[in-house]
Q: What sequence folds into this?
DNA sequence: CTATACATACATACTGCATGTATGTATGGT
DNA sequence: ACCATACATACATGCAGTATGTATGTATAG
């Protein structure tokens, strides 16, 4: 790794980190590229050297947040008890906790689907898709006969949607901790009843 | 009603209708005010006479779509059988059907929360809030002991989130009718199990 | 009943800002 | 020495919002 690409990578990373922060605070439309480069201590030339356009910069920020969340969810699910319902609840809890953080709320949940296209919020193709563990858990439950056959993937969509709405509800609550507890309890009820035929 | 305000109302309505169409096709950011007034056959002066800014125009378009959807959901729920589960399923079915329509997908589900603020997607304060029937149904179920006490409102959030994700999933599917059927069946499973203690 | 005073509904022109692009420059690698 | 990479600078374009102008309808006083 030469000194030059090292510097380039560092600049790129600084831009991405700055972008996450500014997009979190002011959103995509409310953040000018000038503001980003000023905060990052470079010029617009540097930005447009590393990224094709403003959207590409956002995508890099989005993926960084997504990787972070997906990792935490997968780890939580893997560390949980042996039953699918347990793993599902654990992964979901990790996801809800992530939804408490402003940068996850804004970049991943709010702006992401709109800026990058709605398709991103319903496909599982992304290598670091944050909700893959949910589908995995439901497919497992399907094999064990806990849910009607052939419904696992559609149910995963529903559970994931419920999780996202939870994030929004928690985010706007005056007492976020209380909201987190209430939504979490409701989510546990939902999962438990869903996986108990 | 004088001739003048009549004319004004007509112009305003033309702008709103045109806005719904253009926002549906190109989104909020992708639709310039110039494009709207050109399509509506007026000038930018007319637009800024009737609306404070571009966002106010969007809000008018948003509310028009919301009124339409909420009316259909409430009607479907009211026309359904007597049990809460039946009413919930009926209202949800009407909502999913509405989610098949492009203008509902784009204006209400996609752009709305971002342009008008995320809070709009989690509060029930809107007079024509499309998901009020869901909360009503769950509260009824709670009174009948079908769900654990004190969980109705949180569960309503979850169900509504599931519904929205359903809309997205249906929208991007290659075969929307098949997706609608699959998601609808999964939703029925979810509601049935949730309301069966 | 008509003339005047005013409000409403629109059109036009202008300003400032943001994006993207094109071009210039400096520096590390070979 | 030469070249590619990594940036900086200057510029063109387009859009949102505002300020100002104009015409037409409406109310009211004499």
A:
């Amino acid at each position: 790794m030469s000194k030059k690409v090292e510097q380039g990578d560092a600049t790129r990373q600084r831009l991405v980190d700055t972008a996450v922060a500014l997009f979190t605070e002011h959103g995509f439309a409310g953040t000018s590229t000038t503001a980003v480069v000023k905060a990052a201590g470079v010029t617009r030339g540097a930005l447009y050297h590393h990224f094709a356009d403003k959207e590409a910069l956002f995508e890099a920020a989005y993926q960084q947040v997504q990787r972070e969340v997906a990792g935490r969810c997968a780890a939580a699910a893997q560390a949980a008890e042996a039953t699918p319902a347990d793993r599902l609840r654990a992964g979901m809890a990790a996801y809800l906790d992530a939804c408490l953080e402003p940068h996850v709320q804004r970049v991943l949940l709010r702006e992401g689907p709109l800026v990058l296209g709605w398709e991103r919020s319903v496909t599982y193709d992304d290598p670091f898709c944050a909700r893959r563990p949910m589908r995995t858990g439901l497919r497992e439950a399907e094999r064990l006969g806990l849910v009607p056959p052939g419904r696992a993937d559609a149910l995963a969509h529903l559970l994931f949607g419920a999780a996202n709405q939870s994030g929004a509800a928690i985010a706007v609550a005056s007492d976020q901790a209380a909201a987190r507890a209430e939504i979490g309890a409701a989510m546990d009820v939902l999962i438990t009843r869903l996986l108990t035929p």
Q: What stands out?
A: Chain B touches chain A at residues 27, 29, 105, 110-111, 113-114, 118-119, 121-123, 147-148, 151, 154-155, 157-166, 168-169, 171-172, 182-183, 185-187, 189-190, 193-194, 196-197 (CB under 8 Å). Residues 38 and 44 of chain B are 9 Å apart (CA to CA). Chain B has a mean pLDDT of 88. Residues 2-4, 7, 32-34, 44, 48, 53-54 of chain B lie near DNA strand D (CB under 10 Å from a C1').
